[in-house]
What we know:
Low-confidence stretches: none
Strand content: 25-35%
Mean pLDDT: 92
Shape: globular
Helix content: 25-40%
Distance between the termini: 22 Å
CATH superfamily of one domain: Gcn5-related N-acetyltransferase (GNAT)
Radius of gyration: 14 Å
CATH architecture of one domain: 3-Layer(aba) Sandwich
CATH class of one domain: Alpha Beta
Number of helices: 3
Amino acid sequence: MTLQFICKKFEALSLIELYRILQIRNQVFYVEQRCDDLDLDDRDQQSYHLSIYDGDILCGYARLLPPGLAYKEMSIGRVAVSLTYRGKNIGRQLMEVSIEECYALFGKTDIKISGQLYLQKFYESLGFEKISEVYLEAGIEHIKMKKTNYETV
């Protein structure tokens, strides 16, 4: 498995790339997790989109949001790994590259995320710290987390 990471601003995405991104987001968040919020929130157009390809198969994706769009801080969201690629360290690689891309794009400042509660230890292993109580988002338990140490992962 040879992985290729591609990070593009919204307007640079091809129609096929955008279709694949929406496809993986729908598969993970709506089919598997049964989210009850709309995926299309008018933030995609101002964000960067990090895709992981195995050949021509999109196996992972994350949305990188500039400071001021979702939070005062930059953010990483819509993190999704295709079901057939789970358990292969894709999620960790995706988050590590997402953090590095955020630093390169927006500077080495705080990163704030809304993470699913069951992934708290995973995000902590990447340097994020819990900064909120548990709350429901899209019908799923979440916590806000922040990464303030600007070292590479």
